[in-house]
Amino acid sequence: MTSSGYAPLQHLDDPDFDQAGVSVRVLRLDLYPPLNAAMSSGNKYFKLKYNIQAAQQQGKTQLLSFGGAYSNHIHALALAGKQHGLQTIGLIRGEQQQPLNPTLRDAVDAGMQLHYINRIDYRRKAEVNFIAELERQFPAAFIIPEGGSNQLGVQGCMEIADHIAYYRGQHTDTVMLPVATGATMAGLVAALPNSTVVGVAVLKGGDFLHDELNAYLLQSGQIDWGNWQLECNYHGGGYAKCDSRLAQFISDVSKRLDIPLEPVYSGKLFCALYDKVRTKAFPHGSNITLIHTGGMQGLRGMQQQFDAALKQA
Ligand SMILES: *Cc1c(COP(=O)(O)O)cnc(C)c1O
């Protein structure tokens, strides 16, 4: 299923899909760039690409960003910085925990400097004054917002569409992906005017994402083709929450389809897919491409929570 310059496309076989008359495949960004533990992968690779380029063009020697203790973004930033010869600084929400969890252990091993900020200050992370303070404190740093979600991130995510287009024999009318800030989805919406992009919100109260999507498209100078919709009922109780139902679902489906899933993003994406297929929400004959955005590294820090939820199922 692999071809070197592009993410693999995996076809999914399930009697449920046959019965609903839909064809489903997954673009495996979790395997792109081709798996190399020392590189960032998934949607964070695309979000960082032009941020790193901009940092280099501005002569910055450091990358600075924000995230929680299990953040895929922080993990990807640390690896990408190492790869490009840029120092990295991670501002981590909450108190320092010892020993470091696997995400932060990898980040430190890749050379990232960690600073912890309390939850109250962390909320100011996008405020102009707070950023100005950081610019004074870290003059050599290129500052990237949480999740790598800015205009440059959207620009990078538009290139995910090239990976879909590569398999052009496989017409896609629907693209589905998990959504947190909406920057990845905005890139796909902008680059795929002929498909419907369905975003599955992983946070509770995902309706705010309508405005976020509009803002990302506007900032990036992209036309809103109106080719998108948000699914806000698959958050499963909130960000990074994993109840016994979700744990059981992930355990069953990842075995049945032979695909790695985790509870924060891809597990919820697949929940939404199966629910929509079973309720016949997709017209007969639909060609659906899911985006596996990666994030498997985060499961290491959640394994106990996951196993406990599975036991209760
Ligand atoms: C960060 C992340 C997302 C969310 O991307 P947004 O652009 O913030 O919506 C989805 N999946 C995975 C695996 C992620 O790490």
Describe the structure.
- By secondary structure, the chain is of the alpha/beta class.
- Helices cover 42% and strands 17% of the residues.
- The strands form 2 sheets. A 6-stranded mixed β-sheet has the order 1-2-10-7-8-9.
- Helix 11 crosses helix 12.
- It binds pyridoxal-5'-phosphate (PLP).
- Pyridoxal-5'-phosphate is lined by residues 42-44, 72-73, 147, 149, 178-185, 265, 293-295.
Key words describing this protein structure:
313 residues, alpha/beta, 6-stranded mixed β-sheet, 4-stranded parallel β-sheet, 42% helix, 17% strand, globular, binds pyridoxal-5'-phosphate
Question: Could you write a compact summary of the structure shown?
Answer:
The protein is of the alpha/beta class and 313 residues long. Helix content is 42%, strand content 17%.
